[in-house]
Amino acid sequence: MNSAVIVFPGSNCDRDLAVALELVTGVKPQMVWHRDAELPGGLDFIGIPGGFSYGDYLRSGAMAARSPVMRAVAEAAARGVPVLGVCNGFQVLTEAGLLPGALMRNSGLSFVCRPVELSVENSQTLFTCRYRAGERITIPVAHHDGNYQADGETLRRLEGDGRIAFRYSGEVNGSAGSIAGIVNDAGNVLGMMPHPERAVEDAHDNTDGRRLFEGLLETALA
Amino acid sequence: MKARVFVTLKAGVLDPQGKAIHHALEGLGFSGVQDVRAGKLIELDLADGTGDGEIEQMCRKLLANTVIENFRIERLG
Questions:
Q1: Domains assigned to chain B
Q2: Which residues in chain B touch residue A66, judged by CB atoms under 8 angstroms apart?
Q3: A cellular component term (GO) from this record (chain B) (predicted)?
């Protein structure tokens, strides 16, 4: 499985994501700088990592969403290449219009950094196929702007179409419908605030995130 | 030519920062504050002849996230 991880100035989970991908797929991902207008050919997966791209200037993810590489990512997503945005990556995907809604300041105003319990709402996506529907998993979060909001019509559509991939089991950041992760209409773009790449190996004391990458691998090899 | 762009949260969108400012004002003894909404002011120094339509495009494409924010443009001289 050929992967790319996009690197913006201020990304800080790019290497974690690369390590998780290599661990599960056996292939080192290609790291792609934000100024590159083209992606490597033959990609099976694109990861947009967490961090503080461009120092969170203007709005989290706003500047990164307008960088040259994101035009190439949008084109690849339109062709069906799986794209995962984690944390700041989720913010970038909403700012780029690849996912609906917006991620606002946590309702409690504090930076939240702890493992949280999630329920797997849809186990039919290419990212969640290794989980069971309704399964409870634990994945760490670390964010200040994770409060997912969208207009009522969008929220109804996300619910009705099964596009909510993960929900928080308890209160974390004020997100509408406790939404922790959503997929796009075509199902090949997932944005999520929790960090699956931080729960993949024994040293993490928790490997609940590993199956997300295993599911991607399974889909890529199918 | 200068222009100012005011970016504010849409009505109904929860503003945790505004709430925190409100609480802080109350803590300082300002009891008459009904509500606080926080926003942004962006000042643009523009080439002469920059049209309203172009400034509006700047707002829609970058300066405001119209999912959650409104914007208002004010031209200065």
A1: 2-76 (3.30.1280.10)
A2: 61-62
A3: cytoplasm
